[in-house]
Amino acid sequence: MKTVKDLMERSAFGVCSYLGDKMGLASARVRMYFIYLSFAALGSPIIIYLFIAFWLNVKRYIKNSRNLRWE
Hints:
By secondary structure, the protein is mostly helical. The chain contains 4 helices and no strands. The chain has helices at 2-11, 15-23, 27-40, 45-69. Helix 2 (15-23) crosses helix 3 (27-40).
């Protein structure tokens, strides 16, 4: 079961764990709030989730490109 959970966390872009680390909450609690908000707001938080996932990937790409230049 742990391997399935790890696979889902890696494939979910790490947005909930990133937000949980920044806010000092458990990532499971952030996921629950996100699910509840998605149902209450008819799916509009999904757009915010995808934007944050895109931003984290861009941030990771920039960080990796900086490290490659100095090596």
